[in-house]
Structure formats: C-alpha cells, structure tokens
Amino acid sequence: MCKPSLSCIGQDSMTKHLPFIPAFLFFPGISEKTVILFPSTNVTAQSNITGQYRDYFGSRLLLNADSTFTYTWHFDMLSSWTKGTWTVAGDTVFFHMIPIYDTVSQTNSGGNPSDTLILSTDEVPERLTQSKYTGTFLSAGGQNRTAHPAKLLIRKGRLYKIKDGKLLVKKQKGFSTKKKWPPWFFYTGPIN
Questions:
Q1: Under 8 Å between Cβ of 157 and 189
Q2: Which pairing describes strands 127-128 and 101-107: parallel, antiparallel, or unpaired?
C-alpha cells in the first residue's frame, strides 16, 4: 500500500503517472518476429491517500475511497463535525463541505407560516419547531462549529495545514500545557 506522499500524487487530479508501460501490438502483414513498442505517457493509477488521520489538537479526518470526507474536532465538552467531498490536485487535497440542513418552522408577525434553513446539529435533516430550535443553542457541538481545513498539502505521509498561504510546520503549544506539538495531520490507519 502506498503511504500518502508526493510520490503517490501526480499532476492530474487523483492520479500518478507511471513512467513507461510497454505495449505489445501485432499487426496483420507484419512479420510475427517484429514487435513494436510504444511508450505510454498517459497511463494512470489512482493515488491512495484514503484512511484515517488526526492531529494533536483534537481534529480527526476520514478520507473515504468514494471521495467523501468526515472532519471532527473534540475538546472537552465542545465538538464539531463536517461532511463533504475531497479532491486532489497535484500535491494538495481540497475539501468542499456539503451542509446538512434542518428546517425551522415558525409563524411570522403577520401570522403567516415561514421556514428557515439552519445547519443541522446531527447528520439527519429534520423539521424543527421554534421551541426545539431554541434548545439547539444549549448544545456544545454541531456541524461546522470549528471550520474544517479548506486544503491540505500532502508531504511525506502527512497532511500539512495551510494558513494565509503559508505551510504550518512549526510546533505549536497544546491546550493548557507548555509542550509543543507538530501541527500536521498524520496517518493513523485504514478506515474500518
């Protein structure tokens, strides 16, 4: 299995280029002893960065083979989750959130019913009454409460965060400690 690295990712989205694949073709009318070799420059193989990743700051990332992802963040009683799709371009993974909405049913000041879409606190879309919607403010977790990474750089089996166009490589202080930890995501294994 290819560990995630630059060697696994080529220039085309989700592919790596194989350097040379000989093609043996036989043409009618050409001697059976004649073999023509064609170097192939367009043969591709799917890269494999799928699996589970985590960092030292409460974030976990599941990259599924169907190009979907789940990002979660947990710290003490706080939590956040995001689902969406991912693509690879060159050495960078890009993430696109697919929001899950709940519908809040209410009556406006004119007595007319109206609906409002809000981010769901769980993975099941549902219709909420105004009183049930008010109860969601008491939750310490929910969808995209901590933003998922927009993109990560793939290098040496790690996924590096990019902030303000710069790669985060310097160790950072952890929660309520003076110890510094690497800021990148590291591979923890395949998805069960």
A1: no
A2: parallel
Specify the pTM. Answer: 0.69
pLDDT for the residue 137 = 67
- E strands present in 34-173: 36-37, 44-46, 51-54, 59-63, 68-75, 78-89, 92-97, 101-107, 113-119, 127-128, 151-155, 158-163, 166-167, 172-173
Same domain, 111 and 184: no
The CA-based angle 160-164-170, given to 5 degrees, is: 45
Together in a domain, 49 and 61: yes
At 124-152, the pLDDT tens digits run 888 988 777 776 666 777 888 888 999 99
Token couple for 174: 């952890």
pLDDT tens, residue by residue, 82-108: 999 999 999 999 999 999 999 998 888
- What is the identity of the amino acid at 73? W
Considering the domain architecture, whether residues 84 and 166 belong to the same structural domain is answered as yes
CB neighbour burial string for 158-189, b if at least 16 within 10 angstroms, e if fewer: bbbbeeeeeebeeeeeeeeeeeeebbbbebee
Question: Is the same domain home to 125 and 77?
Answer: no
